[in-house]
Amino acid sequence: MPPENMHITLLEITHSRPPSAIPPLISALSPVIPAIIKAPAKTPSRLIKPLVSFDAAAVALSFVPVADEKFSYHHLRRDLFALASSTGVEVGSRYVVPSAHATLARFIYGEDHDSKEKMEKWMEAIEKINEWLVETYWGDNGLEWVVDQELVLREGRLWYGGGETVAGEGVEWKGVDGGEVESI
To answer: What helix, strand, coil percent values describe the chain, rounded to 5?
Structure first.
């Protein structure tokens, strides 16, 4: 995955819809967009214990939320969901189970894993990487990912880091009528 396409998805509003279905959703979300993009800066959350994980489509670096704090990554996701839902927009994410991961690579060719031997080598390599991650980045002085920066709201074909930025990342949100929208 090219570095400029690396991202973490905190909330997916919809997927697999025609482009014409997206502007009405953005319009409905308009009053809460400033609050959504600023949410992590108001209440940061931490992710720890990185491990490489994979499924049939991709390889990712996955984290777990710090659970012994008053506000966790799952609380942040809950609050973003509540903000979006408060507008009447039905949130229809592809993935029901919440996760905190950054996709590292997508599988392109099935023949890379089409035999038992190839899959076993793949699993051994992942296990070695994860052993190294545990030894190196877990524990009291381990690696943590603090989710505390302004979010970026994107629309379009977002797989592989595509799409267009609607708000955040230096794009000033003007709202549906072109005027600035105050944060909630």
So the answer is: 40, 20, 40
> Please, what are the averages of pLDDT over each run of 10 residues along the chain (184 residues)?
75 86 92 93 93 87 89 92 94 80 77 85 95 92 89 79 78 51 30
Residues near 4 by Cβ (< 8 Å), separated by ≥ 6?
A: 161
Q: Specify the pLDDT at position 73.
A: 92
- Would you state the structure tokens that stand for residue 72, as one six-digit string? 């966790």
Q: What are phi and psi of 51, to 5 degrees?
A: -145, 150
> Which amino acid does the sequence have at 23?
P
What distance separates the 2 farthest-apart alpha carbons in the chain? 60
Residue with tokens 């920066």, as numbered in its chain: 149
The structure tokens listed for 118 are 């190839």
CA distance 68 to 158: 33
Determine the Cα–Cα distance for residues 3 and 184; give it in Å rounded to an integer. Answer: 32
SS3 124: helix
Give residue 181's identity as a one-letter amino acid code.
V
Cα dihedral angle (87, 92, 95, 97), rounded to 10 degrees? Answer: 50
Count CA atoms closer than 13 A to 105's CA, side-chain side: 7
User: For residue 92, what are its two tokens?
Assistant: 């229809």
